[in-house]
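assembly run, all chains below
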Amino acid sequence: GAVVSQHPSWVICKSGTSVKIECRSLDFQATTMFWYRQFPKQSLMLMATSNEGSKATYEQGVEKDKFLINHASLTLSTLTVTSAHPEDSSFYICSARDPRLAGGSSGELFFGEGSRLTVL
Amino acid sequence: GNSVTQMEGPVTLSEEAFLTINCTYTATGYPSLFWYVQYPGEGLQLLLKATKADDKGSNKGFEATYRKETTSFHLEKGSVQVSDSAVYFCALKAAGNKLTFGGGTRVLVKP
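ok done. output:
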């Protein structure tokens, strides 16, 4: 299947600093990528939909100035956690849909490995 | 709004035991239903899916049938292996491209 890769897989930073997480589609072009946050022992919460060449669409309750999303190319979306605080510590996961697959409405998403952020 | 409810884990069972993970949903319209699996240290992978009522999705010995009358999509496997130890997520996709996930169920299979 299609491959989505995230980097870094884990990062530790000091409170107040900013951290960038990259999400790449390795063998297909993705006009849309999705960013999720996964809390310990909880489900994935959709944070935002990243659209190539336009602004991201944020879910209700997600601070767009806090979680900056840039989708500069068809294979790369970045999530920047600005002025990180300990409560931002979490597992961040990106996903994308391969438009080459038959039936784009099938809904299958390909997920990255996730990036674990720890803010001290 | 849309929601997915699945049984809480962890579910611990022995090899070759029968596994059932219950999943029910609430959605407007006619959603597509999915089961994703997350193995330790890895990202989520699609396990199986069903796009309309009475469809049965199957993969790797797992099966789930889309039951519109009970709004359910229970996951079953007749004989689990240690390698099936993972977290399983039920999800739905209604109008648009967003997936709504259940809370996940951790399964631990002991030899």
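Chain A touches chain B through 24 residues (CB under 8 Å).

Chain A has a mean pLDDT of 88.

not gonna interpret more than that til we talk
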